[in-house]
Amino acid sequence: MSGELKRGLEGVLVTESKLSFIDGDAGQLVYCGYDIEDLARDASYEEVLYLLWHGELPTREELDAFSDELAAHRGLDDGVLDVTRELAEQDESPMAALRTLVSAMSAYDENADFEDVTDREVNLEKAKRITAKMPSVLAAYARFRRGDDYVEPDESLNHAANFLYMLNGEEPNEVLAETFDMALVLHADHGLNASTFSAMVTSSTLSDLYSAVTSAIGTLSGSLHGGANANVMRMLKDVDDSDMDPTEWVKDALDRGERVAGFGHRVYNVKDPRAKILGAKSEALGEAAGDMKWYEMSVAIEEYIGEEKGLAPNVDFYSASTYYQMGIPIDLYTPIFAVSRAGGWIAHVLEQYEDNRLIRPRARYTGEKDLEFPSVDER
Asked: Do the beta carbons of residue 352 and residue 198 sit within 8 Å?
């Protein structure tokens, strides 16, 4: 097959989208026309979900109704809770557990097998259920794993605050709730990243929304995609345990041929705008706690890698220390990424269904041809 080979589909345009725009040279991220800095500062995660799913910001009345509908779907069916408890007892990894649980949710959705998988209104109802329940199953899994009881959702709390409440058993303070809400906004969408593309490929076969989201979770679990944020925090803890200067530790790691997590991006050629916002939040959390260690360590590593390698941090680099200072277990970082990105996955699937064409690329064959088939006794 002739034509230029594009490994990893780098630079290949496969669709058109109105959802998010990235300028890798300017360090700009836009959702449906709105800069990420403005959304992170002024919008709630619920507003961003509405924006991605409907293409416009909600009015106050629309936002209140939408938020209430999401909150009403947070509760978990007994069967899903039983599976959650079993996975926790078997010490399944959090991302694998989340993948299994989202798939299991479809058994309790009366619209899961709706004949027309592209029906927008039915899919919006599925979307609300999936997005509302993903934080609930993750919180339940984390609590069962440490031997605690399930905490029922609180419909009076917003999406972000309710997750922290269900995770820890107590209502978060305003700073933690606002910080987590902002983190969800920052991770909600990011163009045709690997997991979003995975969801689109699945939905292009006219598979259902649960299958598409489950597929995306599996893709996000890889260390080259969502798993990087947990690796950043493990690195920072290793630096701290070593009692070495952060730059010396990184220099030694690079000399050993190791990769420093949280740097470089396939799209951004400058600092990820989300990293700038989360870096400021990490600094603020450190100041509030009277412990600037994690932030200062991160800044030292960022400056060294920038000078020596010409690389800038991506969103994973500062989300790590932000989540850690919020008391969130390290192996929940990537599942939390999924909890947020589910909104973007669903938005892209809805867009795919609107003008669907089966995604079916080709590969250039490089194997043998015209071989003579030998009998089994001649081999």
From this structure: no
Angle, in degrees to the nearest 10, between helices 120-145 and 333-354: 170
DSSP string spanning 201-268? HHHHTT--HHHHHHHHHHHHTSTTTTTHHHHHHHHHHHHHHHTS-HHHHHHHHHHTTPPPTTB--SS-
CA dihedral 298, 299, 302, 306 (to 10 degrees): -170
Q: How large is the C-alpha radius of gyration of the chain?
A: 22
How far is 262 from 265, CA to CA, in rounded Å?
9
Catalytic residue chosen out of the listed positions 109, 189, 208, 316:
316
Domain ranges (residues) in the chain:
28-222+331-354, 228-325
Contacts of 37 (CB under 8 A, 6+ apart): 273, 277
From the list 35, 54, 77, 225, the catalytic residue is: 225
Let me know the angle formed at the C-alpha of 182 by 71 and 319, rounded to the nearest 5 degrees. Answer: 120
Annotation says 316 is catalytic:
yes
Work out the burial of residue 7: count CB atoms within 10 Å of its CB; fewer than 13 is exposed, 13-18 middle, 19 or more buried.
exposed
Structure tokens at 16: 């058109």
Cα separation, 276 vs 57, whole angstroms:
24
CA distance 8 to 269: 18
- Does residue 265 have an active-site annotation? yes
Helices 60-72, 159-168: axis angle to 10 degrees equals 30
Q: What is the CATH number of domain 228-325?
A: 1.10.230.10
Q: Which of 265, 272, 291, 370 is catalytic?
A: 265
Q: What is the CATH number of domain 28-222+331-354?
A: 1.10.580.10
Model pLDDT for residues 37-64, shown as the tens digit of each residue: 999 999 999 999 999 999 999 999 999 9
pLDDT for the residue 46: 98
Residue with tokens 């490089």: 366
* Known catalytic residue at 73: no
Question: Is the pTM here over 0.70, yes or no?
Answer: yes
